[in-house]
Amino acid sequence: MKAALAAVFVYHELKLALADAQASPTLSKLVAPITDLQNKLHSLAGGVKSGGASASDVAGIDSTISQVKSQAAAAGQTITEQTPATPSG
User: Fold this and answer.
1) Number of neighbours of residue 33 by Cβ within 10 angstroms
2) I want to staple 30 with a disulfide (CB 3.0 to 4.6 A). Which of 11, 21, 56, 58 is the partner?
3) How far apart are CA 45 and CA 7, in angstroms?
4) Residue 62 contacts by C-beta under 8 Å, 6 or more apart in sequence?
């Protein structure tokens, strides 16, 4: 359940990042890599549901994330990773 919630959060954040990249001449170079990352996450979700996800699938996503971060830094926009707060209860 936690993985599913995390995936929904990541996908939502990618949608926001894509909208920002589409609206910014500086970040427009990130549209294709962010779209690629969204597609890979969608495929991974299908693989997880069917039980066919592999470590190499996750490694591919990690590699794509690194590419997006590198391209963003080259455009002058550093991406910092943040862990969302977990509700206490």
Assistant:
1) 19
2) 21
3) 8
4) none
Is pLDDT above 80 for 83? no
d(CA 33, CA 36): 5
With CA atoms as reference, report the closest residue to 79 among 24, 44, 30. Answer: 30
**Distance between CA 24 and CA 55 in Å, rounded?**
34
Identity of the amino acid at 73:
A
Residue 27 has pLDDT above 90, yes or no: no
Q: Is 66 exposed, middle or buried (0-12, 13-18, 19+ CB in 10 A)?
A: exposed
Distance CA 28, CA 7 (A): 24
pTM: 0.75
Q: Which amino acid makes up residue 78?
A: T
Give the Cβ contact number of residue 69 at 10 Å. Answer: 17
